[in-house]
Amino acid sequence: MHDTIQQVTDRIIEKSRPTRRAYLDFIARQRDEGLRRGSLSCGNLAHAFAASGDDKKSIAAARASNIGIVTAFNDMLSAHAPYYRYPEQIKVWAREVGATAQVAGGVAAMCDGVTQGQDGMELSLFSRDNIAMSAAIGLSHAMFEGALLLGICDKIVPGLLIGALRFGHMPSILVPAGPMPSGLANKEKQRVRQLYAEGKASRDELLEAESASYHGAGTCTFYGTANSNQMMMEVMGLHVPGAAFVNPGRKLRQRLTREAAHRIAAIGPDGDDYRPLGLCIDEKAVVNAAVGLLATGGSTNHAIHLPAIARAAGIQIDWGDMDELSAATPLIARVYPNGPGDVNGFHAAGGMGFVIRELIESGHLHRDIMTIWHTDLAAYAEEPRIKEDRLVWTPAPVKSGDDSMLKPAAAPFADNGGMRLMQGNLGRAMMKTSAVDRGRWTIEAPARVFHTQEAVIDAFQAGELDRDVVVVVRFQGPRANGMPELHKLTPPLGVLQDRGHRVALLTDGRMSGASGKVPAVIHLSPEALGGGPLARVRDGDIIHLCAETGTATALVDPAEWDARPPAQAPAAQPGLGRELFAMMRAHADEAERGGSAMLAQAGL
C-alpha cells in the first residue's frame, strides 16, 4: 500500500476502535439474538406472506433465503424510472436459485435536478435521514435474510446504506439502473445556461437545450453525486462487478440485476459464504470510497455523505483524513464537469474496471476487503460481458480508450485528488479544485454578503457584482434551512469569471456534484446560524481563499473580528413541507459529521 493511504487507514482504525467495536458487537447480537423469521408467531407469518401466492410455502418453511427489496422507484425521477419492473423480475430470478423475494418497502427519491434553486431543495439533505428510516422500517419485519437496495441518486444511496447498516448482520447488494444514453453535450448545455443568465438566450432555447441533455430514463450523464455514488459502490465492493455504468434497457443490464438476485441468496447467514453488510463496510472500504472519489474528481456532496455512512458503521472519518488522502491520490479521470466527456464516454474508455485496476496496482486501494462477490476487490478490475448467452467477466483494458478522460496512475492528470480542506478564522470548509484552473486557486477580493441565492441573482442582474468579488451566501447550513445546494449560482458566477473578474463563492451551504470552474469554498462549519464565524462577515471585508495553502480567512483585525456581533438569521419559511422538517433542522450536527439529525440523536 501507498504509505500515506496506509497511515490514514491506520489512523481511522485507531480513532474508530471504540465505536467500531460497539457496532460489531451490535450486529453480532442482532445475528445471534435478534428477531428472525423462524421465531415469528403464526399470526405474524400469516400477515407477512398473505399476498405471496406460490411463494407462501417457501416463505413459511424458512428453509431458503427470503430477500427484502427496498426500492426507490418513481417515474418522475429519470434515474429511478427503470426500477418499475425490477421487483417482479427479481422474484422470478430468486426462485431460480430456490429463494424468494418480497418488496420490504419503498423510500422517497427526490430529484435535486427538479428542485435546484427552488424551495423544495431545503428538504434534500434531510431526505437522506428519511430514506434511512424508511429502509429500516421496511427491514424491521424480521422476514429477510438479505436485502437488495434499489437506488442510485444523490441522497438515496447514502440513505439506503445508513438504513441497511442497522441490519448489518444481513448481506445487502446495491442494484443500480445505469445512466441514460448521451444526449446534448453537457458543455453545450452549460453554454446555453450562461447565455440565458446574461439574457442572451430565451427560456424556450434553454428548455430545448435542457431537454436534449436530460432526455430519457437513467441517471444524468454528468459526473455528479448520483454517478459518484455508483463509483463508490464499486470500489467498496457492494455492486455486482461492473454494474455501475451500463445503460438501462440493455440485455447486459438485466443480466447484472439477475446476478445480484442470485448472489444475495448465496451470501446469507445460513450459507457457506456469509458476507454481512456490516463487515463489508469496514475502515478499508471507507478509505477506498474516499480514494475512488478523489481519483475520479467526484462530487463534493460525499464530503458530507461518506462521514455519515461511515458513522453508521461505527467508523470515524473527517475532512482532515480526506484532505490527506487527496494529497496522495492521483487524479486519473476527467469526466464533465471536470473534463470534456460524460460517464458513457468514461465507461467506454475503460471505466471503473480500469480505475480499480490502476489504483490497486499503485497501492491506493485496499484489495483485501470483503466484497459481496466471490473474491476480493480485484474482481472489480474486470468488465462484464455476455458471451454465448452467459454472463462472463474479462480483464479491464490495459490502455485507456480516451486519454482526455482516463489516464493511468503512473501518468495522471494531476498528482492530487483535487479536494482541499480550507481552514482559518472562517472555520473549516471544503473546496473542489479538480475542475478549477490552477490560476484561480487563490482569490482575494471584497465580500458581498447575501442570505439567499435569489438575492445573489438579483444583484447579478442589476450589475452589482461586475467586479472582483467573493460572494458570501450564509445561513445555508443544516440547522438554518436544511443545507440546500446552490447550483443555481453557477451560471451567473461563471459569467462574471468569463468577463475576467476574480470571483469565488463562500458558503455554509452545498454546491452541486455538477459544480465546476468557479472556485467554491463550501460546507463552511460551524455554520452561520448559532454564531458561526461566517455570521461576522460584512460587505467589503477582504476575504483570502487559497487552495494551495488550504486557507479561508477574513482579513479583519482580530480584535474587531472578535467584537463583532453575529448577523441574525432570517426566519425559516413554511411551505412545500419544510415545516415538517423543523425537528431535523433543530437537531442536525455539522456538515463534517454528516449534517444528520438522525445520527446525532441516535448517539452514533
TrEMBL record:
<dbReference type="InterPro" id="IPR000581">
    <property type="entry name" value="ILV_EDD_N"/>
</dbReference>
<keyword id="KW-0408">Iron</keyword>
<keyword id="KW-0411">Iron-sulfur</keyword>
<dbReference type="Pfam" id="PF24877">
    <property type="entry name" value="ILV_EDD_C"/>
</dbReference>
<keyword id="KW-0311">Gluconate utilization</keyword>
<comment type="similarity">
    <text>Belongs to the IlvD/Edd family.</text>
</comment>
<comment type="function">
    <text>Catalyzes the dehydration of 6-phospho-D-gluconate to 2-dehydro-3-deoxy-6-phospho-D-gluconate.</text>
</comment>
<feature type="binding site">
    <location>
        <position position="220"/>
    </location>
    <ligand>
        <name>[4Fe-4S] cluster</name>
    </ligand>
</feature>
<keyword id="KW-0004">4Fe-4S</keyword>
<feature type="domain" description="Dihydroxy-acid/6-phosphogluconate dehydratase N-terminal">
    <location>
        <begin position="66"/>
        <end position="378"/>
    </location>
</feature>
<feature type="binding site">
    <location>
        <position position="153"/>
    </location>
    <ligand>
        <name>[4Fe-4S] cluster</name>
    </ligand>
</feature>
<feature type="domain" description="Dihydroxy-acid/6-phosphogluconate dehydratase C-terminal">
    <location>
        <begin position="405"/>
        <end position="594"/>
    </location>
</feature>
<dbReference type="InterPro" id="IPR004786">
    <property type="entry name" value="6-phosphgluc_deHydtase"/>
</dbReference>
<dbReference type="InterPro" id="IPR020558">
    <property type="entry name" value="DiOHA_6PGluconate_deHydtase_CS"/>
</dbReference>
<keyword id="KW-0119">Carbohydrate metabolism</keyword>
<keyword id="KW-0479">Metal-binding</keyword>
<keyword id="KW-0456">Lyase</keyword>
<dbReference type="GO" id="GO:0004456">
    <property type="term" value="F:phosphogluconate dehydratase activity"/>
</dbReference>
<dbReference type="Pfam" id="PF00920">
    <property type="entry name" value="ILVD_EDD_N"/>
</dbReference>
<protein>
    <recommendedName>
        <fullName>Phosphogluconate dehydratase</fullName>
        <ecNumber>4.2.1.12</ecNumber>
    </recommendedName>
</protein>
<comment type="pathway">
    <text>Carbohydrate metabolism; Entner-Doudoroff pathway.</text>
</comment>
<dbReference type="InterPro" id="IPR056740">
    <property type="entry name" value="ILV_EDD_C"/>
</dbReference>
